[in-house]
Amino acid sequence: MVKKSKKMKSKSKKKNSKAPSKKKTTTVKAKTKTALDKFGFRKTSLKSAAAAMYSTKKGATLDEIKDKLNSAQLNLLKELIEKGHKVTKTKEPGKGKKPVTRYHIVS
User: Fold this and answer.
1) Could you give the CA distance from residue 90 to residue 66 in angstroms, rounded to a whole number?
2) Which residues face 102 on adjacent strands?
3) The domain 35-106 is classified under which CATH number: 1.20.1740, 1.10.10, 1.10.287, 3.30.70?
4) How does strand 60-61 pair with strand 99-106?
5) Is the backbone of residue 73 left (phi > 0), alpha (psi -120 to 50) or beta?
6) How far is CA 23 from the centre of its chain?
7) Residues 30-43: pLDDT tens digits?
8) Which of 21, 44, 63, 94 gives a 20 to 30 Å CA spacing to 35?
């Protein structure tokens, strides 16, 4: 049998012992309230811009929204209907054979 010397015992204790961990402190940023439009969307969002286009007197088509915002915003009308807004649809003759649907949010 091999006897361990005192030096070897003390080294093994140091390897296994852990230094006390430092607690990390985190800072919580205060949430600022963002301004909402009359439809409940943030004023600077694409949804807000699309809803504003739909709520004009003329209304808007999906192609007009895509061209101006470079975003489809397909479920926006569904969300507005779920929130209780009334959306009207009118068919117009399009460039091709298919008619184009123009949507209008009634305030």
Assistant:
1) 18
2) 61, 90
3) 1.10.10
4) antiparallel
5) left
6) 32
7) 677 789 999 999 99
8) 63
